[in-house]
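Lecture 7 notes: from sequence to structure.

We start with a single chain of 254 residues. Read the sequence below before looking at the structure.
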Amino acid sequence: MAHRLANKIAIITGGARGIGAKSAELFAAEGAAVAVWDMNVARGEETTQLINAQGGTAVFCACDVTDASQIVAATQRVSSELGSPNVLFNNAGIAVVGELEEITEAEWDRQYAVNVKSIYLVSRAIIPLMRAAGGGSIINMASESAFVGFPMHPAYTSSKAAVVHLSRSMAVRYAEDNIRVNSLCPGTINTELYQEFLSQQDDPDAVNSEIVDLHPLGIGEPVDIAWAAVYLASDESRYMTGAPMLVEGGILSL
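Now the structure, written as C-alpha cells:
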C-alpha cells in the first residue's frame, strides 16, 4: 500500500458503485480510513467488505444525502467510529434525461436535490468537524456537462454548472479554515449510470458511438476519475482550491 492519504479520514457519498466505489478502494489503498455513504445497502456493504478484506479500513453508512436527519446520523457514526473527517468527496449524483419541455417539475427538483442541495446539506454537517480537525479537502462532483450545453440534459448540465460555482464560493469562504474546495469534472465515464442512460435511448449503439467520437481519448473508466480524486484529497494539491479539475478526455479541446 502507498501512503498518499495516510492519517486521512474520508467520507465518500454515492460510494456504493461506479466512481464512488473505485474512489473508496483507492482512498483506502492510499492509507485513508473511508466512510462509504449510499442508499444502496447491498452494494455499499460489498464495497466496504472488499476494502476491509484487502487490509484497509472502511465503514458503510446507509444514507440518503437529500435527507438532513440521515446525514446527521451518518456524521455522528463516522465521528464515533473513525474520528473527525478531513476529506469529503460529495460524489452522489443522478442524471435526468429529457428536453426542457419534457421533464417534469418533480424530475427537475430531484435532479437539483441530489446533485446540488446534497452538497450543501452534507458540507454543512461536515465542515464544523473538519474545521475542528485543522482543515481538509472537499471535492464536489461536477462534470464536463458544466461547460457543454448538451440539449437532452438541461437539468443535469445546469446542476453541474451550479456545483462548479458553489465550489468556488465555498473555497473562498473556508480558505481561512484551511479547508480547500474543488470541483471534479469528468468526461463521459463507463459507469452503470452511463449504461442506464444508454438504455433509455432509441438507438443505444449510435448514441454511444456519437459520445465516444466527442472525446479524443474516448470514454473513460471509473479508475481514471478516482485517481484524480486521490490527488485532490491529498496534500499534493494543497495549493489548489476553487478550481474545476477537468478530467474529460479532451472534449473541451474540440
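The two ends are 38 Å apart (CA to CA). Keep this in mind for problem set 3.
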